[in-house]
Amino acid sequence: MAKKVVRRAWTKDEFRLLRSMAREKRGVKKIAKALKRTVGATHAMAVKRRVSLSTRG
Question: Which of 31, 39, 51, 55 would disulfide-bridge 46, Cβ 3.0–4.6 Å?
Answer without folding.
Answer: 51
